[in-house]
Design a protein that fits this description.
Strand order of the largest sheet: 1-2
Shape: globular
InterPro entries: P-loop_NTPase (IPR027417), UvrD-like_ATP-bd (IPR014016)
Strand content: 5-15%
Order of helices and strands: HHHEHEH
Protein name: UvrD-helicase domain-containing protein
Distance between the termini: 32 Å
Number of strands: 2
Structural class: mainly alpha
Largest sheet: 2 strands, parallel
Number of domains: 1
Organism: Halanaerobium polyolivorans
Pfam family, one: UvrD-helicase
GO molecular function, one term: hydrolase activity
């Protein structure tokens, strides 16, 4: 059974307080950023550079971390192609998200995930 998670407006305000300046908000004309943060399905984000994709991802991670540990023991998996993206995530939110960066959660590159969970266990 999937974990039941509800992302509220208070959760969004919490993320805004950490990630945005005082005069900024995730609200926009179509509430696209807020609907993306609240969406817990698999989605693809297509937007121009500088539009806030990474900030929306960071907001979602900040919010989800507060709801850890999940009742079913599952975790959050964030995989990137580059160390630069992983470093950006860690630099921005690691101090607020200690649970996100520990088991059963994983934030890292595809290569580090394969090494940790596939290659090393196979060779043992």
């Amino acid at each position: 059974m999937p974990v039941e998670i509800n992302i509220t407006d208070k959760d969004i305000e919490y993320a805004e307080s950490i990630l945005l300046n005082e005069d900024e908000s995730f609200k926009d004309d179509n509430d696209e950023r807020i609907s993306c943060i609240k969406n817990l399905e698999t989605i693809d984000l297509h937007a121009v550079p500088g539009s806030g994709k990474t900030t929306v991802l960071l907001a979602k991670l900040l919010i989800l971390e507060r709801k850890l540990p999940f009742k079913d023991g599952s975790g959050i998996l964030v995989i990137s192609h580059t160390n630069a993206a992983v470093d950006e995530i860690k630099n921005e939110i690691e101090e607020y998200c200690p649970k996100l960066f520990s088991y059963p959660n994983f934030v890292g590159t595809i290569q580090s995930f394969v090494n940790q969970y596939l290659a090393k266990p196979y060779f043992k």
